[in-house]
Amino acid sequence: MENEGENRVRLHKYLADAGVCSRRKGEEYIRKGLVCVNGEKVTRLGTTVSPDEDRVEVSGKSVRPPQQDVYIMLHKPAGYISSCSQPGRKIVLDLVEVNRRVFPVGRLDRDSTGLLLLTSDGRIHHRLAHPSFDHEKEYLVQTDQPITDRDIEDLGKGVQLSDGITRPAKVSRKSKNEFSIVLREGRNRQIRRMAEALGYGITRLHRIRMGPLLLKDLLSGNWRHLTEAERSELLKSCGL
After folding, report:
1. Catalytic residue positions, numbered
2. Is the sign of the CA dihedral 127, 132, 137, 141 positive or negative?
3. Fewer CB near the terminus (10 Å): N or C of the chain?
4. Phi, psi of 158 (to 5 degrees)
5. How many domains does the chain have?
6. Closest CA to 4 of 227, 219, 229
7. Residue 226 domain-assigned?
8. What global pTM score does this model have?
9. CA neighbor of 4 nearest in space, from 213, 207, 215
10. If 0-12 CB within 10 Å is exposed, 13-18 middle and 19+ buried, where does residue 4 land?
11. pLDDT tens digit string along 70-115?
12. DSSP H or E stretch at residue 152
């Protein structure tokens, strides 16, 4: 699928980030016609560029900011594995086209869908995945039979698994066989195992939120770069 959004920045900010000049001086260069984007002279101050795609020149000299980490939101469809390599299997990196090496954070199993973060920032994985950082992950869950109020309550209190009891979670009913759950930990196949321990199978497991990031209306199989505001909130939530 094609990317639904571009990580674009104002041209004068791009020049400042590249160390060419201040933003104000960058505006002056643009007005004077000293700046070209992809070989074409640009004089409009509101022009935006994609740091990953566009070629920017000032007075004929190519300029580029230091390479920055990439943060991508993917709406993972069912059938894809959250891995960088799995010979003979469909992996989430097959859905994304970027010029940087990225890896999935907070994995979803093959049959699960929803929000998956891909990044080149190696600092993020531990801070999002480790329970000591208390990052919330929210899921919509459908079961193969109606779930009782008692079991909804037990899911929230904690369920005994082979590797110990789960931490308390926020659980709310959506319909007779659907609920939302907010976890602050990320054990392997945790929600499926919790449901199985109470006698239920899961027919749909869909993540809609990771920390401050919301999936919203991003279509299945599509991806986009995080906005500057989202990147800022994500890094802030990770203490970076």
Report:
1. 109
2. positive
3. C
4. 130, 140
5. 2
6. 219
7. yes
8. 0.73
9. 215
10. middle
11. 899 999 999 999 988 878 889 999 999 887 788 898 889 999 999 9
12. helix 149-157
